[in-house]
Fold this protein.
Amino acid sequence: MNSKKDFDDRDTDAGAPISIEVISLDDVIAEIAERRSEFNQRSHVPVDMIEKMKAVGIFRASTPKCFGGDALAPGEFLRIVERISEADGSAGWVAAFGSANIYLASLPLATQALIYANGPDQVYAGGLYPLQPAKEVESGWEVSGHWRFASGCKGANWIGVGIGGTPASGGGTTSGKPLTAVFPAGEVQIVDNWNVVGMQGTGSHDLKLHKKTVEREWTFVRGSTSTVDEPLYQYPSVSYQAQVHAAVNLGLARAALDLVIAMSGSNKTV
């Protein structure tokens, strides 16, 4: 079996330009199926594969049209996620976060313009829990802490972490509804500790920050009202996330049925 080091030449920083010929979603799904053992061994979906997912629109599926995105209808994106998950559950789970930019629509429009300044294909990952307290400073919050389960973080351009909430009266700490604080991925330390049985390729590693300041304009309440006046962003964002996770499981279930049929030697469908 190959080691992780054998694959290092295919892994670069997220967002680094990779020359990609014109490819289709079918091409990407076929390659995912071929490389799924590699994703498992790496403990993440490598950046060259993320770039190919970008090329077929996975990570602009929930980018607002006003910023050059596709803002796909949920049903259309769910079908894409199910197909990818049938090829590989881990890649499907990571692709499902192509819907996560719907959360970023709660940020001020000026902040979103900065996020999409380099194009609509932006990968957003999050490690929201456990929520960490944050110290209020003049420009926003001073954030330190350790978060878990940041799926897809190694291929992300932007990473969100969960902090305690809105200002407490007079205390200078946080309370109330929790906030998500958004940072460029390069500012967040990834703790390479994802070691599980199944879905290893999701790369759901831990995150760490120490005394990083985030401006208020880069924080939002998850599921709060969108600042984008487009149909997709009137759709309940938390419910949408539940649906994309269900689509991953549907793809896995379909693959399991196909495997059982193949093992039984029958050509009949279930």
Notes: The helical segments are 25-42, 47-55, 74-87, 89-96, 101-104, 109-115, 237-264. The first strand starts at residue 124 and ends at 132. The two ends are 34 Å apart (CA to CA).
